[in-house]
Amino acid sequence: MDQKELNKRVLSSPIHFLAFGFGTGLSPIAPGTVGTLAAIPIYLLIQPLPLIAYLLICLVVSLFGIWLCGRSQDELNLHDPGGIVWDEIAGYLITMILAPPGWLWIVLGFIFFRIFDIWKPWPIRWIDSKVEGGLGVMLDDIIAAVFALVALQLCVYFIPLL
């Protein structure tokens, strides 16, 4: 499928539109990074919520993402296309669990998540290559997000003046 046809399908289907991060996954350059940027306004909306509500939203976004990403890639007949970025949105929201308020933490969380999502240290790379379907699309980013969450919280703990 060529890019023009993909754009048309993504922008005309609610499933693909969401899976492609409200269309951000159609970016010709670094769709995962652009998709992660789309998570920042969502984070800013839910960040003030009580922790339990924030965690519940992360859980719902992640579980919904398994179905959504699986359905989108199946309907497009593509295997884990880079344009599906719902997993990046979920991953960034997980990264930001318990993050202090402020743009410094938003940017650091973004950087940490992108590093782990791109670098894919073990077991992320293994999961990315072995787990299929919507779960495979989501799981590697969820684990990358946990790594990024730990890195961010270590910064919060050890560098409290940031």
Poorly predicted runs of 5 or more residues: none
The 3D shape can be described as globular
Q: How far apart are the termini?
A: 47 Å
Largest sheet entry: none
Q: Which whole number gives the mean pLDDT?
A: 95
Helix content, binned percent: over 70%
The H/E string reads HHHHHHHH
Assembly annotation: single chain
Q: What is the number of helical segments per DSSP (H or I, 4+ residues)?
A: 8
Strand and helix layout:
Elements: H1 3-12, H2 14-19, H3 31-46, H4 51-76, H5 86-95, H6 103-119, H7 124-130, H8 133-158
Helix pairs in contact: 3-5, 4-5, 4-8, 5-6, 5-8, 6-8, 7-8
Account of the protein in words:
There is one protein chain. It contains eight helices and no strands. With about 160 residues, it is an all-alpha fold. The chain has one domain. The chain is globular, with a radius of gyration of 15 Å. The termini are far apart. The mean pLDDT is about 95.
Keyword list:
mainly alpha; 162 residues
Question: How would you briefly describe this protein structure?
Answer:
By secondary structure, the protein is mainly alpha-helical.
